[in-house]
């Protein structure tokens, strides 16, 4: 067992220990989305998407600091994991310069993306957080602000996507050569970038629930391959890990796309938002890998660890991922049963 592998084992075990309860509560931290579009001068259509947990939704509402009039009652409809509320309003005072707030956001663990599109084509985009649930609508906004918002969202998604991180860490337990590691990670990146793009643009789609189930069982498979490798057996995953990383990367890309759809894509800024989110996912993934390698570089002098640690980690990976798979499958059957 190499020192590199041992440190990866430790990180995998840590992720497995904490990820199960986090994954079970993952739907509680999906972002909210407020979309405001000017249809005629001073008249706006408003859409507020609020995450749901079962039949309950987060108690969130959108408010403006200036004078606005609601022109029609709020129409609500559930979409499985979110509640959509829509209405029309008239801005008695210009929205530029007003402060928009998501009331109740400070009592949650989620964020809210706010997008306002004006009749002249000007679009304002901002991400609100529990610590800062309001923002002032400026007169102009640069493309850099849009890019920054989605880059940060991509980084946050991958760093809190424990199933994706566990899959990458599992691959690092199989790959023992740094050149092959680069090749494997690159294949995974290219693959999920393809399906993220295709799914987000509507060129190819898969239902999110089955995708999440398959992602969990893809981790189970890699865990089983780690055990086979330690027994001296040979398989496609062990011999050509980059091929397997590419195939499962296509699947994980659909999972990333589901997160991006939950976040919401700004009309007119879709290419920039998609590219920026993808960049954020890759940056977050590289941060995770770099953190492992940095820990390895600083700690390799101090450890002499038995080879059984890899097998133990593989069983831990398989157990946690199987639990995720069964839990997600049960949730899917409950919704569609």
TrEMBL record:
Superkingdom, natural source: Bacteria
Signal peptide start and end residues: 1-24
Alphabetical keyword list: Membrane, Signal, Transmembrane, Transmembrane helix
Membrane-spanning segments: 158-175, 182-203, 209-227, 239-261, 273-297, 309-326
Pfam families in UniProt: HupE_UreJ_2
Name under which the protein is recorded: HupE/UreJ family protein
């Amino acid at each position: 067992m190499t020192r590199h592998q041992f440190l990866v084992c430790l990180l995998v075990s840590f992720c497995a220990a904490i990820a199960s309860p986090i994954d079970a509560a993952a739907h509680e931290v999906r972002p909210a989305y407020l979309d405001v579009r000017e249809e005629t001068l001073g008249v706006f259509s408003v859409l507020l998407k609020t995450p749901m947990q079962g039949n309950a939704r987060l108690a969130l509402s959108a408010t403006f600091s200036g004078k606005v009039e609601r022109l029609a009652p709020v129409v609500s409809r559930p979409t499985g994991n979110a509640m959509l509320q829509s209405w029309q309003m008239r801005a008695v005072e210009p929205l530029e310069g007003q402060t928009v707030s998501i009331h109740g956001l400070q009592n949650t663990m989620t964020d809210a993306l706010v997008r306002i599109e004006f009749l002249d084509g000007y679009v304002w985009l901002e991400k609100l957080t529990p610590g800062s649930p309001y923002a002032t609508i400026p007169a102009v906004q640069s493309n850099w602000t849009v890019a920054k918002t989605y880059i940060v969202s991509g980084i946050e998604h991958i760093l809190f996507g424990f199933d994706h991180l566990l899959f990458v860490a599992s691959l690092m337990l199989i790959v023992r050569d740094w050149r092959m590691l680069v090749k494997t990670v690159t294949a995974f990146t290219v693959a999920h970038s393809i399906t993220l793009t295709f799914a987000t643009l509507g060129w190819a789609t898969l239902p999110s629930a089955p995708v999440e189930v398959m992602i969990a069982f893809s981790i189970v498979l890699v865990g089983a391959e780690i055990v086979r490798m330690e027994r001296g057996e040979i398989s496609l995953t062990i011999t050509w890990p980059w091929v397997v990383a590419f195939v499962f990367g296509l699947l994980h890309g659909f999972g990333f796309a589901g997160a991006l759809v939950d976040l919401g894509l700004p009309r007119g800024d879709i290419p920039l938002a998609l590219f920026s989110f993808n960049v954020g996912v890759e940056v977050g993934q590289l941060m995770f890998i770099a953190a492992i390698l940095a820990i390895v570089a600083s700690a390799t002098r101090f450890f002499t660890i038995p080879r059984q640690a890899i097998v133990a980690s593989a069983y831990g990976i398989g157990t946690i991922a199987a639990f995720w798979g069964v839990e997600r499958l049960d949730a899917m059957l409950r919704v569609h049963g």
